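Ticket #4471: structure output looks truncated?

Reporter: J.K.
Steps to reproduce: submitted the chain below (145 residues) through the standard prediction queue, then opened the result file.
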Amino acid sequence: MTLLAVLLAGCNASPYPSVPPSALALLASLDTPDGIVDVFRDTRGMHLWLGQDTGGQNESGLPPSVHLFSTGGESGLTYNSFVFGVAPSGATQVELSGIDYIGATVTNDVYVMALEAKDILPTQLVWTFRNGQGDVISRGSNITP
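Returned output as attached by the reporter:
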């Protein structure tokens, strides 16, 4: 299982630039009080952009994919953790149970969510993908391989 739970203890990150480099294939964006968070894909996989590339995640399995990037300690930012990935076919929304978040819309079969909580562990993620009628398409927990 690949784990993208990066802990940046004591990080004093600045607000994010608005977009990743233009040569990259932008898939989804989320406007937060700290700036725009983007998800893009290149030959190395799917990436989260927070003013810089957080590293590529291989998308070798079937959707859904659930990746986690989490800051540790005091970041000075409103949102400290991010969940992103590829939604299953037909999904229009994604939900997390027991965690406050913004961003739940699936765009181009991709989603990105921002969580205020820091130090989120993969085992804390309980996710549900729904179609436009609210029917459950996929449900699970943890991050995906």
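Triage note (M.O.): checked the attachment and the full token line is present. The first strand starts at residue 25 and ends at 32.
Status: closed, working as intended.
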